[in-house]
């Protein structure tokens, strides 16, 4: 889920739930809020204190592992998280089979043209594109290459062809859905060459196929063209199997990144593998959501200083214009942290991974936007993982120059490097990890190792001033084990096909499905 969607009610932030928590007995009024803020600052100070106290044990743990590894033969690796992460139980290997699940009747004459406007960041746009193809198929419409809405949070003017390969998209879909780059002149003439004159069929989120057939199709047949804007999450999660298969076909085969993105991404992956010689070319990727807008929207407090408070207020006002000052909205950072709603700091991510068994020889790729106060907050993570890389360290400045200022293109580079990683770590939810988890399941037999920690449990360990390293490690490994248990999962009725491509888009290898 993008920050923009999150702000419209997809998460707690500073919204109604936070306000309700703040109105609980003992938490209301200015005095209560001041006490809550003071408690939170104490807890955050404890997290740093815990790290400082545990650091000698963390460092010694790595030294012991290194010494043990050096005593083994050069062809025998120490027991490493990276060497045992991709696994499937016998009989549970799933393989992509979307091509044989797709129904391919000859395309009848088109009923007209469908235009949609995708909003949000890279993967929210991706979701809108996949759903638009499914709706176009349902309506037997010709899809016009989607337009991208400029968003005040993402601030990216990129068009479809800047991010995705347009020609490949059109060619790959030609047997399933007609796609054109723009409306024909004769159709535009009917609407006085003004796109806004084409009726906008405003559609509720998660609308059923029946809605499109009953409400949109008649207008399409009458007018020859309709548009739907905005078009984000406008198709139900559960639809007929042929539409689900088409969604997957679009996501995994028709949508590929534009040439400049692919070329640089391939080079970055190759460089990351070369940096990971100590673990056989395998590396861990982390989606770190600690950008200024995410920290601001979460309404969590970190160092609690005047500078941070001013910067967060400015960021909230710049991107959400008064949303957080509406009547009844109360900021309660302590409740957010306790409920696992606060973005993990780089320090907390590092402590979690070291506790789970990843030592200082682990190559770590950090996917993120511009980290808030990066010099301060990234230092402990680099201390714990000296083999840390980002797109800024893997690529030369001149290689990144054409992508700067385009958040979706930069996110596409991150996505491409995370995709083949041995282990993927998600820290804050959103469309990026949800799409990546589904894509990795699709590519890696239904089960690609993902660490999705329970942050409510993490906070209990981070905020315990008396915790010892052995107990901290046990807690982290319990959290890891819980993530392992959810590795292979079939889609449930309200789940997204983009996160859980089984069973609609994959088949068990033994042919049982």
Automatic annotation (TrEMBL):
<keyword id="KW-0808">Transferase</keyword>
<keyword id="KW-0119">Carbohydrate metabolism</keyword>
<dbReference type="InterPro" id="IPR024709">
    <property type="entry name" value="FucosylTrfase_pln"/>
</dbReference>
<protein>
    <recommendedName>
        <fullName>O-fucosyltransferase family protein</fullName>
    </recommendedName>
</protein>
<keyword id="KW-0294">Fucose metabolism</keyword>
<dbReference type="Pfam" id="PF10250">
    <property type="entry name" value="O-FucT"/>
</dbReference>
<dbReference type="GO" id="GO:0006004">
    <property type="term" value="P:fucose metabolic process"/>
</dbReference>
<keyword id="KW-0328">Glycosyltransferase</keyword>
<comment type="similarity">
    <text>Belongs to the glycosyltransferase GT106 family.</text>
</comment>
<dbReference type="InterPro" id="IPR019378">
    <property type="entry name" value="GDP-Fuc_O-FucTrfase"/>
</dbReference>
<dbReference type="GO" id="GO:0016757">
    <property type="term" value="F:glycosyltransferase activity"/>
</dbReference>
């Amino acid at each position: 889920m993008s920050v923009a969607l999150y702000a419209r009610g997809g998460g707690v932030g500073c919204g109604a739930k936070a306000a309700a928590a703040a109105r609980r007995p003992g938490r209301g009024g200015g005095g209560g809020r001041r006490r809550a803020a003071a408690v939170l600052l104490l807890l955050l100070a404890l997290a740093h204190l815990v790290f400082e106290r545990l650091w000698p044990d963390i460092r010694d743990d790595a030294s012991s592992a290194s010494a043990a590894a050096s005593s083994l033969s050069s062809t025998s690796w120490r027991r490493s998280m990276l060497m045992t992460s991709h696994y499937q139980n016998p009989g549970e290997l799933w393989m992509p089979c979307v091509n044989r699940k797709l129904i391919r009747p000859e395309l009848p004459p088109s009923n007209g043209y469908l235009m949609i406007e995708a909003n949000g960041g890279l993967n929210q746009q991706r979701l809108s594109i996949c759903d638009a193809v499914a709706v176009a198929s349902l309506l037997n419409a010709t899809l016009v290459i989607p337009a991208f809405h400029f968003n005040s949070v993402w601030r990216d003017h990129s068009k479809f062809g800047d991010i995705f390969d347009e020609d490949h998209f059109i060619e790959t879909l030609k047997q399933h859905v007609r796609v054109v780059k723009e409306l024909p002149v004769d159709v535009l003439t009917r609407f006085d060459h003004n796109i806004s004159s084409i009726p906008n069929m405003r559609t509720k989120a998660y609308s059923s196929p029946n809605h499109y057939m009953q409400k949109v199709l008649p207008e399409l047949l009458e007018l020859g063209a309709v548009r739907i804007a905005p078009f984000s999450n406008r198709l139900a999660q559960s639809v007929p199997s042929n539409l689900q298969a088409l969604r997957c076909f679009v996501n995994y085969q028709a949508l590929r990144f534009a040439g400049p993105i692919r070329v640089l991404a391939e080079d970055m992956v190759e460089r990351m593998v070369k940096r990971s010689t100590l673990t056989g070319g395998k590396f861990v990727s982390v989606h770190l959501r600690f950008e200024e807008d995410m920290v601001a929207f979460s309404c969590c407090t970190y160092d609690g200083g005047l500078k941070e408070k001013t910067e967060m207020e400015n960021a909230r006002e710049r991107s959400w214009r008064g949303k957080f000052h509406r009547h009844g909205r109360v900021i309660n950072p302590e409740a957010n942290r306790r409920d696992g709603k606060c973005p993990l700091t780089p320090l907390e991510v590092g402590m979690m991974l070291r506790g789970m068994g990843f030592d200082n020889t682990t190559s770590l790729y950090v996917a993120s936007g511009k980290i808030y106060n990066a010099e301060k907050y990234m230092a402990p993570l680099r201390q714990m993982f000296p083999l840390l890389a980002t797109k800024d360290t893997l690529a030369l400045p001149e290689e990144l120059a054409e992508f700067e200022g385009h958040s979706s293109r930069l996110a596409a580079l991150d996505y491409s490097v995370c995709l083949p990683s041995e282990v993927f770590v998600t820290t804050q939810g959103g469309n990026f990890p949800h799409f990546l988890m589904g894509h990795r399941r699709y590519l890696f037999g239904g089960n690609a190792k993902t660490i999705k920690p329970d942050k409510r449990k993490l906070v209990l360990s981070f905020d315990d001033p008396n915790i010892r390293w052995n107990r901290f490690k046990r807690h982290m490994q319990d959290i890891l084990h819980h993530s392992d248990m959810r590795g292979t999962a079939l889609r449930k009725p309200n789940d997204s096909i983009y996160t859980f491509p089984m069973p609609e888009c994959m088949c068990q290898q033994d042919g049982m499905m």
